[in-house]
Amino acid sequence: MNEINITAFGATDYVGRSSFLLSNKDHNILLDCGIELRPKQFSVAPKGVDDVASDLDAVLLSHAHIDHSGYMPSLSRNGYRGNYFMTHPTKEVVYRLWLDHLKIEGRRHWGESDLDRVFHKIRTLNYYKPFKLADGISAQFLNAGHVLGAAQILIDWEGTLILYTADINDRVTPMFDGYDLPKEEIDILITESTNGERYVPERSKIDVGLRLIAKQVTDEKHKMILPSFAVGRSQETLITLALDDDLSDVPIYIDGMINQMNMITEHFLSDKWVSKRFLEQLRDAGLHSPFEKSNFIPVNSISERTHAARRYIAKNTEGSIIVTTSGMLEGGPVHTYLELCGDNEENVIGFTGYQVDGTLGRAIYDGERSITIDNGRGRKKNLVLKAKVMKFPYSGHSSVDGLKFIMQKTDAQDIILIHGDKRNQNYILDYVKDVAQPRTLKEGVKTRLLGV
Ligand SMILES: [Zn+2]
Ligand SMILES: [Zn+2]
After folding, report:
1. What's the pTM?
2. Which one of the ligands is nearest to 64 CA?
3. Cα 417 to ligand 2 centroid, rounded to whole Å
4. Average pLDDT in the 183-198 region?
5. CATH number for the domain that contains residue 120
6. Which of 93, 84, 116 is nearest to 267 (CA)?
């Protein structure tokens, strides 16, 4: 009897520190190893993963986001000597995120030497290329439609097929046409549940609004600030703006780590990693890369004196768009723009991503206007925001109907919901009850997979 168990070290009924162990008496396979970011606090490690690190046969990473990858280098510190499997784009992106994380949190969870040891053991793969994890166990990566290089992980464990979706998106987004389904029916589905309760509008509808407002604000010579996550949303936003001819003369300033992520994205603009539709759109627009447009201006290309460049952008009389980190306004260049542009009621701050409770982004999103920012030169400053606040309800995660669809199509006998809060999971349980009866996990509790 081939009994297989799953243990969650995080991300059971919340989003953060995704890390799951698949195990039987002979083998241990780890899927993701992320941290949980908490506003104004240190990040939290997945609980229990240190104890199993030295027993692991293989470690797989679904995508670069820090809630899936941030604790991974500690596995090496705790005795893991095997390989780390991921897609090629994920390796490029995650390495930048790991370095960035070191800058923010120092060596709290792991240090540079751990990172070097991990980097040496990374094995990169294309989608749909099976690879061996241990005797009788193989895996392959499937397109997840989430961010560049993001994968679902399909595991063949001695004939039992297990699909771990990690983060998936069913919607057509600028670079992808939604997640792919496995060709074969599977036995066990471990799926995210982030948007169980939230209706996600079609992208094209949100795009119309974003472009229209961008045009209006800049025609009137005002500024539109778009705080964006460096990986994923910022590239999507920039592509949406790049492919609108009406905005071709509008300066679009790009600040923070987004510029590095754009460069990495440019390396992977082939049908191996992005949709054919997107490549055709680029070709029709006469572009090799969406980021090569002449109205796209990396802020550090203006002056080596970054603050002077930001001041120039904020205070000149042109209408412009500023796409900048951090996405939830927890720090980064966006604070300088809030300081310099926030007191003008004609300017616009446009939210393009989900805002976690407790972040400055969430507070502003919910209506707070008296805020404290870090002015970029190490000093805190209180200010009253007068700029207009607008919300563009993009999401990188599947809508509830997309989750129902994957449950239906894969026909799994055992379905496990992870990576979503209780309210969302309860809504899904009700929404899918005519096609499936998913279950949830308890953190740290070894749970036997059914249908093996
Ligand atoms: Zn993600
Ligand atoms: Zn995630």
Report:
1. 0.97
2. 1
3. 13
4. 95
5. 3.60.15.10
6. 93
